Amino acid sequence: MRMSLDKLHLCGDFNEQINNAERKLIPHLKRFMECVAGDSEFYSAVQKNAAECTPLLESKRIFGVDPIQATALVPETAPVMSLLKEIPAIPTAELEDKPQALLWRRYTDAVARYRETWRHLHEKTPSSAFNAWRQRQINRCHSQLNKETNQAIVHTAIAFELCKGCSMGCHFCGVGAEPLQMVYRYTAENAKLWRDVLDVAVERLGAAAGGGVCYWATEPSDNPDYFKFVADFGEKTGIYPQTTTAAPLRNLDWTREMLQFRREHSTAMDSFSILSLNTLHRVHDIFSAEDLALTALAMQHTEPAVRSRAQSGRNRKVGSGGPQPGPSQDHTIACLSGYLINMAECSVRLISPCPPSGRWPLGYRIYAEGSFSSASELNDFISKTINNCMPEQIAPDDILAFRRDLKFIPSPDEEGFKLLSKYRLHKITGAPHLARLGELIAQGNLTSRRVLQELMAQHQDVLAIMASMQKIFDQGLLEDGFSDKEAAGRQEV
To answer: b/e map of 421-455 (b: 16 or more CB within 10 Å)?
Structure first.
């Protein structure tokens, strides 16, 4: 299989910024970087003597790449985990005599810009309540999760599962996928429900629906009709969503369909999860650099990938089969702040990322869950969750309490207080009422009405007090109103 580059659309407007020779070279630079990131022997060889590596490159079907130029962007101490991250910050002036290195940097920068553009295009919905709720989740995550994790989370508004469970059984699955139990086939009845559900998604979420995906705790290739569903998704939303498969070699016809589908609908870049070095070698043997020009390879078998895995899902299991003692690593692979819909069992959850814990072992919080037998019932669920779970303002009877992971630090000298999380220090200072406001909220048992009354009795400015409470709420610094009992059983809508 060798795909032509004639109609290859690499990334946004980047096509207009490169010539044919550069367009031909980029897939081979990409393969070079894949070998660096995923094959330690290859990495050692190019580090030891790049000038003599041309035969090695040709054995990997890497053509036209100058290894001396390419290695200018290879870290000296360890292989890169991602082709688009961890590239050394070498000044451009030092690369003027290395046009291939400059080309790769230009390409990766263009991909990063393209992704960021799409992230912003799909972040707003027609619902101001949903938008405010989503922004609170983003703010909370920036306080609870590390910078690298937050950069990877897009907080998409919707995701679909077209199977119940997954056939892969990856031991490191961060969302704890169940064994494959059911496949949602593209029958006439199912196709109608699917298209009706997509209509609801577009109506309620607008352009944000186009940022969704058609897999979660599932393997896309488990569904033989996957691309029929994805084609409908693209027709309804205008975006043909990204696909990641962990089984690129299991059904080559399906994989080739995936590659051809992306060529025809270049609105995203797909991904292969590479689970072993042997898989990497076989993928490179079967598919040319041109074949994989629009497919990223995620090196799940390398040491950096193993170290960075989220301690969620099956990664929380130890020899005894129980959860790890103490706090988990503050990393999650969950990237959804919105609706997780399983078409096979007609279930729906409202979720958002969080650090994995005993309370939330899959790395996401569940705000509500339900089921549907029709698109109208799904629409009702969305309406109820927006009304019940996404207040835009604090209600008088709401109990005010700081998030349990925050340490309250009084700061009377600064007219206020501070809240310390593992990753951020929040300063709420600079107004006479703030110090007492912080003390009252820190009690964790007072309603907003009671807090307001206490401060008004001290002749504090009521409008300023209300504005401060709203700001604290908007920043995601307050508990959501879950009791432990409610959190354990979730809210059924």
So the answer is: beeeebebeebebbbbbbebbbeeebebebbbebb
d(CA 218, CA 415): 51
Per-residue pLDDT tens over the stretch 382-415: 999 999 999 999 999 999 999 999 999 999 999 9
Measured from the Cβ of residue 333, the count of other Cβ atoms closer than 10 Å reads 21
3-class SS letters over 179-235: ECCEECCCCHHHHHHHHHHHHHHHHHHHHHHHHCECCCCCCHHHCCCHHHHHHHHHH
pTM of the model: 0.89
C-alpha distances in angstroms, 107 versus 11, 14, 42, 93, 104? 8, 8, 23, 17, 5
Chain CA centroid to CA 15, Å: 26
Sequence letter at residue 400: L
On whether the CB atoms of residues 78 and 317 are closer than 8 A, the answer is: no
Cα–Cα distance for residue pair 337/352, rounded to 1 Å: 4
- Taking the C-alpha atoms of residue 83 and residue 105, their distance in angstroms, rounded to an integer, is 10
- What's the chain's Rg over C-alpha atoms? 25
Amino acid at 390: M
Whether the Cβ atoms of residue 431 and residue 463 lie closer than 8 Å to each other: no
For residues 294 and 269, is the Cβ–Cβ distance under 8 A? yes
The Cα 176–Cα 189 span in angstroms is: 30
Tokens of 15: 């096509």
Q: What is the DSSP letter of 386?
A: H
The pLDDT score that the predictor gives to residue 73 is 80
Separation CA 317–CA 320 (nearest Å): 8
**Are the C-beta atoms of 2 and 291 separated by less than 8 Å?**
yes
Q: pLDDT by residue (tens digit) across 9-52? A: 566 677 778 888 999 999 999 999 999 999 999 999 998 998 89
Q: Where are the alpha helices (DSSP H) in 14-169?
A: 20-38, 40-48, 54-59, 67-70, 99-121, 128-144, 147-152
Q: What tokens appear for 9 in the block? A: 């659309």
Tell me the pLDDT band of 470, cut-offs 50, 70 and 90: very high
- Reported residue count of the chain is 493
Q: Coil, helix or strand for 284? A: helix
The predicted pLDDT at position 10 comes to: 65
Interval 259-289: pLDDT, tens: 999 999 987 889 999 999 999 999 999 999 9
Q: Is 434 left (phi over 0), alpha (psi -120 to 50) or beta?
A: alpha
Give CA separation, 127 vs 41, 124, 312, 451, in Å: 52, 8, 31, 29
- The one-letter amino acid at 405: D
**Among candidate residues 314, 417, 313, 306, the one with its CA nearest the CA of residue 361:** 313
DSSP 317: B
Position 5 pLDDT exceeds 80: no
| CA–CA dist 259, 256 (Å, integer) | 5
Tokens of 408: 């309250």
Predicted local distance difference test score (pLDDT) of residue 318: 43
